[in-house]
Amino acid sequence: MKTFSLINFVASLQAALLIASLAPAAEPAKPNIVFVLFDDMGYGEPPCYRADSQFKTPNLDKLAHEGMRFTDAHSAASVCTPTRYGLLTGRYPCRIGQYGVLSHTSPPIIEKQRMTVASLLQAQGYNTACLGKWHLGMNFE
User: Fold this and answer.
1) For residue 13, what is the enclosing H or E element?
2) Helices (H), 72-139
3) What's the CA gap between 59 and 36, in Å, rounded?
4) What is the predicted pLDDT for the residue at 19?
5) What are 87-131's pLDDT values in tens digits?
6) Element (H, E) at 22
7) Which of 77, 66, 71 is nearest to 99 (CA)?
């Protein structure tokens, strides 16, 4: 049976650490990001925010339990169009004079060159999508 001296052990450990430090560091995985915006849902309605809620939202509760939950949020407006504009652009909707809800024939209110959460994330290598109600104007060309 071979025995190693303390000096051999320390030398081997140092060599292993040196080799490990020279290896390129793996890029940390980017977290998944999901923005969920509900119209007309109060803070205490889903059970993940209030245990005695009358609502049954098992998938939302699971997402909240396994992810990150924010408990102090403020809306840019009380109706959908300016709220969505504020969430996506980070700007107050009153800066563009948007106080109410757009109609289905309204032109887009987010300028093409305006940075949004999606364009910021795309620049960082994320794939983005918007699902559900848009209500920020459309061009039907």
Assistant:
1) helix 6-22
2) 80-89, 117-123
3) 13
4) 66
5) 999 999 999 999 999 988 899 999 999 999 999 999 999 999 988
6) helix 6-22
7) 77
Longest Cα separation, the chain? 85
- Contacts of residue 35, defined as CB under 8 A and 6 or more positions apart, other chains included, come to 87, 117
Predicted TM-score of the model (pTM): 0.71
Catalytically active residues, by annotation: 80, 135
Which sequence spans correspond to the domains of the chain?
42-73, 75-141
Structural contact between residues 86 and 92, judged by C-beta atoms closer than 8 angstroms: yes
Question: At 35, which amino acid appears?
Answer: F
- What pLDDT is recorded for position 26? 72
Rg over alpha carbons for the chain, rounded to the nearest Å, is 25
Average pLDDT over residues 17-44: 75
CA distance 138 to 106: 6
Q: In this structure, which amino acid lies at residue 62?
A: K
